[in-house]
Amino acid sequence: MAVRFDEVQVGTELPAQSFPVTRATLVQYAGASGDFNPIHWNEKFALEVGLPDVIAHGMFTMAEAARVVTDWVGDPAAVVEYGVRFTKPVVVPNDGVGATVEVTAKVAALLEDNRVRVDLVATSEGQKVLGMARAVVRLG
């Protein structure tokens, strides 16, 4: 069932989600995106360039966060604007577990034309990994 504009208010919380990220996930994403930068799969290289370990692709993290919004609204085409600032990398250790990106979101503003602004918070290991993450969504 689609979310309707008259059913939401400022402060409406979207269902929170957690997304596991493993080294295998990163290799699969690299294949899909064409981004084979070694910081996303080669631990030795990542350490040599000053990173704590292999890190997730920023666009992967951004896309996973957007899933909270698209799952809530039910139609990815309803998202008319989306932007984030990257604040910290998602470090993905090669320990068989990897990392988890946790995303919460809530309606922050009601706009004209049945649109709402949704503010998102994405964290990993207790650290905020996306700053000023916002989506504008057109509701029915």
UniProtKB/TrEMBL annotation:
Stretches assigned to the MaoC-like domain: 11-108
Stored Gene3D superfamilies: Hotdog Thioesterase (3.10.129.10)
GO molecular function: fatty acid synthase activity
Gene Ontology biological process: fatty acid biosynthetic process
GO annotations of cellular component type: fatty acid synthase complex
UniProt superkingdom: Bacteria
Database matches in InterPro entries: Fatty_acid_synthase, HotDog_dom_sf, MaoC-like_dom
Assigned protein family: Belongs to the enoyl-CoA hydratase/isomerase family.
PANTHER family referenced in this protein's UniProt entry, alphabetically: (3R)-HYDROXYACYL-ACP DEHYDRATASE SUBUNIT HADB, 3-HYDROXYACYL-THIOESTER DEHYDRATASE HTDX-RELATED
Descriptive protein name: MaoC family dehydratase
